[in-house]
Amino acid sequence: MSENNAFERLLEIMKRLLDPDGCPWDREQTHESLKPYFLEEVYEFFEALEKKDFENMKEELGDILLQIVFHAELSERAGSFNIHDVLEGVCRKLVHRHPHVFGEIKVKDSSEVLSNWEEIKKKEKSLKDRKKKSVLDGVPKTMPSLALSTRIQERAANVGFDWSRIEDVWGKVHEEINELLEAQKLEDPEKIEEEFGDLLFSLVNLSRFLKVNPEHALRKTVFKFDHRFRIIEKKAEEMGKSLSDMDLMEMDDIWNETKKKDI
Question: What is the model's pTM?
Answer without folding.
Answer: 0.64
